[in-house]
């Protein structure tokens, strides 16, 4: 089976005056459709750069990025925007909700721009926020806010759900709940989920674990028997 | 700041956030520039004028006396404490006579040291007969140096009693500080307005006393005119002058009274003399008459004598004629006698000859007879011989018988002959007898003739004597005739002389009659005058002085009022800027402090005191505002006054230089205000944060919760809004400071623009409505005042025949002062009385401004113009009064108030005019509505009618319109200033708002981009807020603009003008569009910034 997402010798070089910094230096990995992937690595390993490139927020200096058979590394800005719009769901560490919109409206916001959205209220119900739909983000807890963020990403019905440290700002229990939500989503909807984290502890729950360091993927392992989130502790 | 790190932090902060720094700097600069600049314009206008006044040493006080002023008055005034210089002078309003019009001009005497004239061309007059002309008037009338002006008195004083020369040569052109503007004020002559002034030497004036004495006040030059200090100082001196007024007036009164009394006495003497002279003249004529009568008598005598002489001559002539006839008869007789004598002699001679021949014949007869007797004897002898022979002869006897028979026969015959002879002899004897008798008779005849001749000789002598006598008589007669003819010639001469004398006398009489009538009339007049003078003298009142300070100089006051108006605008308009500046500073500083929350926390944690930390923001604000103020003050106080005053100079063209110094007061005030506002805002922003604990500060600020807005109560509407609209709606209510800043900023911008355009509309209303809708006539023709009613009517009729004239209406136009019990002072207005009241509306629209309700003239009152009604504070149905030149007041009721924008008019019904003034109006003006208002057609029309006798002037509305438009151009500059400032305001405010919005929402925007929003959608999200705020601000601004416009219009309006009250719909549109355009430009710039937002921002933690 063709991999759903595949990075081929991807490099990203930042020019800081005289100095060239190679944030990603020949990254190679494949991810299959419907997999729950965790990309894990320490600070400065190039996680964020990979995320940016995968998420269409940044372009790579060289190499190929294939998502569902299309090479997004050749995309121009406008195409990239369309790519983000239609194909990517994004979950941020700090939720990045629009403070002025209620939880439901934050979801609807995303829906307004994509081609084939899901029903916002239904998605909200699925993430367990049916009762709090009309609250503003400031009135919600961190976990609830992250659920809203996930709902917002899911409602777009994306090809790829990218999560950047989704539990980073959450306490242990809430974090677990979020991870469960993500795993359940992956399992139930067959959504390809990529979680980027520095937290080694959550790797057992993933179908595929990509370990990166110094801009390279140094260990890609496929977990035949991912554990349910409940079993994981850190 | 001793702490180097902090200081560096400040500088770096400024450098890093230059945009923010500049936006505070700019808005403060704008605020202070507007505030100090427009406020400074008022004093700068005054100062510029003051410099001009001081430079020309313009009088501070003018004293005019009811009876004129004298050198003694001048000396007395010079003695008044506080009076610096005294300058008595003359002035008089006269007509300058042009070929087809007359212009009222003020003739002023040249004052060397006061009210100095600025010569712009040529030179000052140096001798009498020369003048310097008002430059403005010279331009208007196309007069150049060397032209000669003809002057004419405008009142009952003869021109010789005013000036020495009634024609003046223009040797120079110039201006005076007494007239700043194009207006030259009013006069009592002509149509009531002065066209200009002429400056002549004082010696040119022949007036008997000074008309005015100008003074300067000690210390006044140092003071700024229009200031209270100046007014107080001048008032003080005025009071002191008032103190000597009574004494001087009394002196002048006595003097004039004495003079008048003397004059009356002289007058009386003169009248008496004149009467005596008249009597003498009559006497002389009568003497002449007598003489003439004598002469006539003499002539008659002479004629009688001559007639006698002529009769004598005639007698003598008759005698001579008789004598001549007698003489002629005598001569005839004498001639006849002579003739008879000659004839007698002739007859005598003839008869003598006859007698002699008869004697001869007789003698011959005798001889014959004797011869015949001899022959016969012989014949008898022969016969006897023969008979003898015969007998002797041998012949036969028969033969002898025969022969003897024959001799016998012969004898027989001889016998016969002898008988005949005898008979003859007898006859001869008888004849001889007769002859002798005859000869005796002849002898008698001869003697008779001889006697007659003797007698004739005597008669001839007598006749000759007679002739001589007659000749003598004739000579005598000729002499007599000569004498008579001489007498006749003499008589003829005498008669001619007499006729001449008679003619002369007749002429003399005629002259006398005529002259005496005149003289008597004159005497009567003089007597009347004398009576008047006496009465006047009797009623001569103590004169009063008119002590006039500069506040009585029209342009001085008007200019001051204009300055005040600008000042009043300066009180209000800059307030908008200050409000916005304060809001901008507050928002900006608040945002800045919020942004630096963590840094503040860190500093606090590091142990810096609150003051140290706050100082950064306070200094930041302070630096931005002090620099902004400095720039604003300099630019504002240099640019605004100069631009505005230069604009006013279109109206006040005589003002030479604009002075725009810095005003410490305004600078300090605006700087203080700006700095206080900005720094205060910074302090307020810091204050809250300073109180938090460092720990709290280090943590991200809990995001401000979204709030439901009122719009959500309307689900049908809310549901339809996209999230960006929802977000925008909530944002608007979330940040109140920004909301108000933007609303006020944008509102201010729109308001200013609306004011700018609105003021133009208001000004155009004067042109468009006044000359487009209200004054529908093309022009007016003024006729000279000596035309009769019939001539005017005929002229009007002929006008209506002219194809170029659609309609013509006779009008009485009269300048009068209108006043009311409620208003102070009076307003010069034109009284308009139509000949046919119902046709007036074809020429002038009378209607209420609101609703355009038409008004009609009635005999119950007058229709007055709106501005006049406002100035006099009267409503429909209330009473005003009209005041004529003699201060006589006529009360009338106002029956309507009509829309009007330029000058004051009072429309009155003809009937009411008659009732009110007790005289019929002359209707010397004819308003025409022409088919063409093209300039060239108007010029042709004007030229054609100026050529008509009796036409004094032809003027067109278009000319007035042009003048008004020129005058109003002065406002244009102000409008540009306003538009530019408005634009700047919009830029600063929107730029600032966007800046804040974008920095504040960087994260939100980055998120949106990550979510896949296109740039356009992202900017729409942010800019929609701007758009809504702009639209709201524009809406508010339109409202504010209407109020501000009203305020400015009412403040800036001058007395004789009403600006349009209505702003044109297009101006609302333009004001809004311009605002949106400015906003659009700022938003466009923002779009570029937005595109640069890095999506990575979204991944960062909240600071």
What descriptors fit this protein?
heterodimer, A: 234 residues, alpha/beta, Rossmann fold, 6-stranded mixed sheet, 4-stranded antiparallel sheet, B: alpha+beta, 6-stranded mixed β-barrel, 20 strands, elongated
Count of extended strands of chain B: 20
Low-confidence regions of chain A? none
Number of domains of chain A: 1
- Gross morphology of chain A is globular
Which CATH-level-2 architecture of the largest domain in chain B? Orthogonal Bundle
The portion of residues forming beta strands of chain B comes to 5-15%
Q: What's the helix-strand series of chain A? A: EEEHEEHEHHHEHEEE
Query: C-alpha Rg of chain A, in Å?
Result: 17 Å
* Span between termini of chain B: 28 Å
| Beta-strand content of chain A | 25-35%
Could you give the count of β-strands of chain A? 10
Give me the number of helical elements of chain B: 23
Which of globular, elongated, flat, extended, rod-shaped describes the shape of chain B? elongated
Q: Class of chain A, according to the CATH hierarchy?
A: Alpha Beta
Structural class of chain B: alpha+beta
Characterize the biggest β-sheet of chain B.
6 strands, mixed, barrel
Number of domains of chain B: 4
What report would you give on this structure?
The complex is a heterodimer of chains A (234) and B (1103). Chain A has 234 residues and is an alpha/beta fold. Chain A has one domain (5-231): Rossmann fold. Chain A is 29% helix and 28% strand. Chain A is built from six helices and ten strands. In chain A, the strands form two sheets. In chain A, strands 6-7-8-3-9-10 form a six-stranded mixed beta sheet, with helices on both faces. Chain A has a four-stranded antiparallel beta sheet with strand order 2-1-4-5, with helices on one face. In chain A, helix 5 runs parallel beside helix 6. The mean pLDDT of chain A is 85. Chain B is an alpha+beta fold and 1103 residues long. Chain B has four domains: 1-41 and 573-702, no CATH class; 51-241 and 545-552, no CATH class; 242-536, Helix Hairpins (Orthogonal Bundle), CATH 1.10.287; 779-932, no CATH class. In chain B, 64% of the residues lie in helices and 12% in strands. Chain B contains 23 helices and 20 strands. In chain B, the strands form three sheets. Chain B has a six-stranded mixed beta barrel. In chain B, strands 13-14-18-15-17-16 form a six-stranded mixed beta barrel. In chain B, a hairpin with a 7-residue loop joins strand 13 and strand 14 (827-834). In chain B, helix 7 packs parallel to helix 20 (970-1000). The longest helix of chain B is centred in the N-terminal third of the chain and has 165 residues, at 228-392. The mean pLDDT of chain B is 83. The A-B interface holds A 48, 51-52, 55, 57-58, 78, 81-86, 88, 90, 92-94, 96, 98-102, 105-106, 108-110, 112-114, 136-139, 152, 164, 169 and B 702-707, 722-723, 726-727, 730-731, 734, 1003-1004, 1007, 1009-1015, 1017, 1095-1096, 1098-1099, 1101-1102.
């Amino acid at each position: 089976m063709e991999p759903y997402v595949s990075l081929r010798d991807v490099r990203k070089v930042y020019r800081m005056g005289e100095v060239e910094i190679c944030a990603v230096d020949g990254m190679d990995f494949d991810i299959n459709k419907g997999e729950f992937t965790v990309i894990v690595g320490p600070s400065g390993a190039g996680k964020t750069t990979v995320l940016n490139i995968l998420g269409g927020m940044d372009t790579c200096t060289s190499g190929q990025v294939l998502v569902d058979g299309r090479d997004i590394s050749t995309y121009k800005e406008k195409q990239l925007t369309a790519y983000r719009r239609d194909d990517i769901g994004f979950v941020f560490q700090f939720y990045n909700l629009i403070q002025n919109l209620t939880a439901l409206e934050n979801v609807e916001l995303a829906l307004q721009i994509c081609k084939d959205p899901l029903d916002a209220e239904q998605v909200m119900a699925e993430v367990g926020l049916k009762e709090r739909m009309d609250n503003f983000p400031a009135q919600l807890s961190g976990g609830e806010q992250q659920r809203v963020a996930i709902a917002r990403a899911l409602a777009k019905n994306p090809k790829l759900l990218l999560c950047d440290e989704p539990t980073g700002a959450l306490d242990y229990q809430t974090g677990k709940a979020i991870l469960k939500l993500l795993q359940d989503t992956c399992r139930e909807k067959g959504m390809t989920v990529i979680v980027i984290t520095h937290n080694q502890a959550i790797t057992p729950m993933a179908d595929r674990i990509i370990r990166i360091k110094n801009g390279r993927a140094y260990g890609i392992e496929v977990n035949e028997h991912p554990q349910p989130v409940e079993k994981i502790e850190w | 700041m001793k702490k180097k790190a902090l200081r560096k932090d400040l500088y770096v902060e400024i450098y890093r956030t230059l945009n923010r720094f500049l936006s505070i700097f700019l808005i403060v600069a704008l605020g202070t520039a507007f505030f100090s600049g427009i406020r400074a314009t008022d004093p700068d206008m005054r100062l510029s004028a003051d410099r001009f006044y001081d430079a020309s040493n313009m009088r501070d006080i003018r004293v005019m006396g009811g009876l004129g002023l004298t050198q003694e008055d001048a000396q007395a005034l010079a003695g008044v404490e506080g009076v610096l210089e005294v300058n008595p002078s003359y002035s008089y309003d006269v007509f300058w006579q042009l070929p087809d019009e007359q212009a009222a001009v003020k003739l002023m005497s040249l004052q060397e040291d006061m009210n100095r004239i600025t010569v712009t061309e040529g030179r000052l007059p140096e001798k009498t007969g020369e003048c310097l002309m008002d430059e403005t008037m010279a331009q208007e009338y196309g007069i150049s140096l060397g032209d000669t002006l003809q002057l004419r008195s405008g009142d009952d004083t003869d021109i010789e009693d005013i000036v020495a020369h009634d024609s003046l040569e223009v040797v120079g052109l110039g201006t005076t500080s007494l007239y700043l503007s194009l207006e030259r004020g009013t006069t009592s002559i002509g149509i009531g307005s002065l066209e200009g002034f002429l400056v002549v030497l004082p010696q040119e004036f022949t007036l008997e006393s000074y008309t005015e004495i100008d003074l300067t006040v000690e210390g006044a030059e140092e003071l700024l005119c229009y200031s209270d200090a100046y007014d107080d100082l001048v008032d003080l001196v005025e009071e002191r002058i008032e103190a000597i007024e009574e004494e001087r007036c009394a002196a002048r009164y006595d003097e004039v009274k004495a003079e008048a009394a003397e004059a009356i006495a002289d007058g009386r003497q003169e009248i008496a003399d004149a009467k005596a002279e008249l009597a003498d003249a009559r006497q002389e004529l009568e003497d002449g008459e007598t003489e003439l009568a004598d002469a006539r008598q003499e002539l008659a005598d002479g004629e009688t004598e001559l007639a006698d002489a002529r009769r004598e001559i005639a007698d003598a002539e008759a005698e001579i004629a008789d004598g001549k006839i007698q003489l002629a008869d005598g001569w005839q007789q004498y001639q006849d006698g002579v003739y008879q004598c000659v004839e007698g002699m002739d007859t005598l001679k003839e008869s003598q000859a006859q007698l002699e021949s008869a004697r001869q014949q007789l003698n011959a007869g005798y001889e014959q007879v004797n011869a015949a007797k001899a022959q016969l004897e012989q014949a008898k002898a022969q016969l006897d011989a023969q008979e003898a022979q015969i007998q002797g002869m041998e012949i036969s006897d028969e033969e002898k018988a025969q022969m003897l028979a024959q001799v016998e026969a012969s004898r027989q015959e001889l016998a016969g002959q002898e008988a005949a002879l005898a008979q003859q002899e007898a006859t001869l004897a008888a004849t001889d007898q007769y002859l002798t008798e005859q000869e005796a008779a002849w002898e008698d005849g001869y003697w008779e003739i001889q006697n007659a001749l003797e007698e004739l000789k005597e008669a001839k002598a007598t006749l000759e004597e007679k002739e001589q006598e007659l000749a003598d008589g004739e000579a005598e007669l000729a002499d007599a005739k000569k004498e008579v003819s001489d007498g006749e010639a003499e008589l003829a001469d005498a008669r001619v002389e007499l006729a001449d004398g008679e003619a002369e006398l007749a002429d003399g009489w005629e002259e006398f009659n005529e002259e005496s009538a005149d003289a008597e009339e004159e005497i009567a007049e003089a007597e009347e005058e004398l009576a008047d003078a006496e009465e006047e003298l009797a009623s001569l009142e103590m004169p009063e002085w008119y002590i006039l300070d500069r506040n009585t100089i029209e342009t001085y006051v008007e200019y001051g009022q204009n300055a005040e108006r600008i000042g009043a605008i300066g009180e209000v308009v800059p307030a908008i800027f200050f409000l916005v500046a304060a809001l901008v500073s507050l928002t900006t500083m608040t945002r800045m402090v919020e942004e630096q929350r963590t840094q503040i926390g860190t500093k606090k944690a590091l142990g810096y005191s609150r003051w140290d930390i706050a100082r950064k923001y306070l200094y930041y604000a302070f630096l931005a505002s002090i620099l902004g103020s400095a720039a604003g003050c300099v630019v504002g106080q240099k640019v605004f006054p100069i631009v505005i005053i230069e604009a006013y100079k279109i109206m006040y063209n005589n003002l030479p230089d604009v002075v725009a110094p810095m005003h410490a007061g305004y600078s300090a005030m605006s700087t203080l205000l700006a700095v206080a506002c900005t720094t205060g805002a910074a302090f307020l922003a810091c204050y809250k944060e300073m109180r938090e604990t460092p720990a709290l500060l280090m943590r991200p600020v809990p995001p401000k919760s979204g709030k439901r807005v009122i719009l959500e109560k309307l689900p049908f509407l809310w549901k339809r809004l996209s999230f960006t609209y929802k977000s925008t709606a909530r944002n608007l209510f979330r940040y109140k400071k920004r909301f108000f800043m933007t609303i006020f900023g944008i509102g201010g911008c729109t308001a200013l623009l609306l004011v700018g355009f609105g003021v133009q509309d208001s000004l155009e209303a004067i042109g468009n409505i006044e000359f487009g809708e209200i004054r529908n006539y093309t022009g007016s023709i003024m006729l000279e005042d000596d035309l009769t009613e019939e001539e005017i009517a005929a002229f009007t009729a002929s006008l209506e025949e002219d194809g170029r004239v659609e309609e013509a209406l006779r009008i009485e136009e009269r300048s009068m002062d209108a006043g009311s019990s409620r208003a102070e002072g009076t307003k010069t207005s034109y009284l308009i009385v139509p000949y046919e009241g119902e046709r007036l509306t074809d020429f002038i629209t009378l209607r209420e401004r609101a609703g355009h309700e038409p008004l009609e003239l009635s005999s119950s009152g007058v229709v007055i113009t709106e501005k006049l009604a406002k100035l006099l504070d009267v409503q429909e149905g209330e009473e005003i009064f009209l005041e004529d030149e003699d201060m006589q007041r006529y009360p009338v009721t106002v029956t309507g108030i009509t829309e009007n924008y330029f000058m004051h008019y009072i429309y009155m019904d003809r009937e009411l005019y008659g009732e009110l003034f007790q005289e019929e109006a002359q209707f010397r003006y004819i308003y025409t509505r022409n088919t063409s208002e093209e300039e060239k057609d108007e010029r042709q029309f004007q030229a054609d009618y100026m050529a008509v006798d009796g036409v004094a002037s032809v003027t067109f509305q278009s000319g007035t319109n042009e003048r008004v438009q020129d005058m109003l151009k002065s406002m244009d500059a102000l409008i540009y200033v306003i538009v530019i400032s408005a634009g700047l305001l919009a830029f600063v405010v929107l730029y600032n708002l966007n800046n804040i919005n974008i920095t504040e929402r960087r994260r939100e925007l980055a998120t949106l981009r990550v979510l896949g929003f296109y740039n356009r959608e992202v900017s729409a999200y942010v800019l929609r807020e701007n758009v809504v705020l702009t639209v709201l601000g524009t809406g508010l601004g339109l409202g504010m603009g209407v109020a501000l416009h009203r305020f400015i219009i009412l403040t800036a309006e001058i007395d004789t003008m009403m600006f349009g009250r209505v702003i044109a719909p297009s101006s609302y549109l333009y004001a809004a569009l311009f605002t949106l355009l400015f906003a659009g430009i700022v938003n466009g710039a923002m779009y570029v910034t937005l595109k640069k937002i890095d999506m990575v921002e979204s991944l960062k933690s909240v600071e």
